[in-house]
Amino acid sequence: AQDWSPSVYQIGKLYQGYVIKNNGERIDGYIEAQRRGSIDSYLRSNQTCVIFYSDPDNKRMSVVYTPDSIKEYMIADKYYKSMHYSGGLFSKPLQFLLQVSDGHIAKYVWYTPSEDRTPYEMKFEEQFLYQKGDEMPIELSTLVFNFAEKVSTLVSEDVELSQKVLNKEKGYKLLNIEKIIAEYNEWYNNNRN
Fold it and tell me: Nearest 5°: phi and psi at 34?
């Protein structure tokens, strides 16, 4: 899980980072830390925009990037990727999702405000997604029904692993999704051309 404690990550503070523009150009600089998720649609967060500075000593010269203007960015130890996701709504605008684990099938998290938050305490619920390459992300919750069929298709290039999942072998069921993805990513890294 990500560490959001104030000793590691402080809202408003500038951290070294970079943005990758849609044309592939990387720009190094400093990024202002924001909330991990939006509380209301009008408030900025790491999921909705990037406040970028070339010079950390000149706070008046910032550039605000949105998910449609860059592909990805990194702030401190947190990597975000722009993809179509809305937290379960039908329209799927571009948003920034935080990567929790890397690989050909990467795991991302989307933060939504928790129902039990208070004006004094920000609480967020986590929605986990998997993305294979640059395909559309898949919510973990949608894999629950027909798990074997969906996940065996997701890892289909690894025929042996796909068959284990499809046959619902011990250790290859829903509760083992992390292990299955890790096994696929290892296979992918060892077999890609």
Answer: -125, 180
